[in-house]
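This entry is retained here.
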Amino acid sequence: SMTPPGHWVSIALQVAEPAALPLDRNVDLLVRMGLAMADAFVGCWHEKFKYNLVRPVTYIRRAIDPKWEPLLITPPFPEYPSGHSTVSGAMDAVLTAFFGEDYAFEDRTGSPDGRNPRYFKSFHEAAEEAGISRMYGGIHYRSAIVDGLIQGRCIGEQVNALKTRK
């Protein structure tokens, strides 16, 4: 799936295969990713309805140009923080803990749909790009992205601290 969770699982599986992780490490990775994703969504949506900020399309149409359209379809829930960024920050933290800082990888998730593979120098770089894409698409302000990435990374670090084996 090209949803944020599906995309990150695809990346993890692509990275885990050549790393030849033993089964128990693969399971540990996927469990941590699942926990971090679930907590990232819960934490993000808690904040969305706490702050209840309007999306760029609402503000721009009211104050600047009533005919403006974002590049991406605007979701029907509050803007802040960015869910995509929160999940991506959490996945950055989990995957970096498993594979290390500056772990370069190729993302072939879109290849079956005819898109070229993407190359990243680190999970951090991929998470940053995933977040900023939401601003370029017109559905988030920068603060929602920056704070979402921070929130997600914090959640990911909490999940990394869990004992899942022995």
Notes: Helices lie at 4-19, 23-51, 56-63, 83-99, 123-136, 142-160.
